[in-house]
Amino acid sequence: MGIGEIILFAISLLIMFVGIAGIIVPIIPSIPLIWLGAFLYALFTHFEKITWMVLLIFAMLTILSIVLENLGNVYGAKRFGATRWGIIGSVVGTGIGFYLGGPIGLILGPIVGTVIFELIGGKGYKGALKSGLGNFMGFLGSSVLKFIIGIAMIIIFSWKVFV
Question: Which contiguous run of DSSP H or E holds residue 88?
């Protein structure tokens, strides 16, 4: 492995670790950046170590992580008793949170939206707060799964490059 390939590997890993940071800072596209880092390495090394098959598997994991990310909050809220009002509030809260609060808004917006819309829908404070907690638990669960997927992709990438 020459110096150019080492630099390319380091740049790819840097991109991938920014992707891992995106799990915590939701405005950064987390797992898609990990895929991009692998793709750039594969492209510049003519797909010798990171093949199209590896990239396809990474693409499927990326799609899975996006699905988990989008369904996590809703699933958590539903598991904690959210009604249709709460689910609508989660979606509305995500949009408003993104525009008004950036990364923090993306975390708090769906929770607040769930609680407010549950209250509008006639649920009591205790039930609305429980639905909001479920929304947050879904966010945490999907974040943990995304982290596991991301780390697995980075480990596989590194293994394929060096073995």
Answer: helix 84-120
